[in-house]
Amino acid sequence: MKRFFVSLILLLCSWHSLAAHTAPDTPMDFVEAQINAHPGKSGVYALETGTEALIARAWLADHAQHSIEVQYFIWSTDNIGILASEALLRAADRGVQVRVIVDDLLIDAPDKTLLALAKHPKIDIRIYNPQHSVGTPFHKRLLNVATDFRGVNQRMHDKTFIVDGKIAITGGRNMAAEYFDYNHRYNFRDRDALLLGNVVKNMRASFENFWGNRLSAPVEELYDGIGLMQQHVNVDDAEIKMIYRELHDYANSKENFAPEIHAAIETTPTTFERLARQFAWGEARFISDLPGKNNNRLKLGGGGQTTSALAQLVQNARQDIVIQSPYLVMSDGAIRLFQQAIDRGVRVRINTNSLASTDNIQAFSGYRNQRDRLLNMGLEIHEYKPDPAIRSKLTEGSLLRKEKPPIFAIHAKTMVVDSRTVFIGTFNFDPRSENLNTEVGVIVENEALAHAVASAIETDMLPANSWNAAADPDQHVSLAKRSKVRFWQIMPIKPLL
Question: What are the tens digits of pLDDT across the range 165-192?
Answer without folding.
Answer: 999 999 999 999 999 888 888 999 999 9
